[in-house]
Design a protein that fits this description.
Layout (H helix, E strand, L loop, with lengths): L2 H17 L11 H30 L1
Length: 61
């Protein structure tokens, strides 16, 4: 598997970790920021992974 694709999948998992992060007392004020950053990371890297997959698929045709 391509190393870039593995890195993108790791970034997607990191985005999910940011979204599901429990609210800790000293980070409670930043909770909404972590949700936004996590959601953006999930969307951006999921689209990038889909792009790599489509590029590889059409290259084989």
């Amino acid at each position: 598997m391509n190393q870039t694709a593995i890195l993108f999948l790791a970034c997607i998992l990191a985005g999910f970790a940011l979204v599901k992060m429990p609210t800790i007392s000293f980070l409670a004020s930043l909770s909404s920021l972590f949700h936004v950053i996590g959601a953006l990371a999930i969307l951006i890297f999921a689209l990038a992974t889909l792009y790599l997959g489509a590029k590889a698929f059409f290259k084989k045709l």
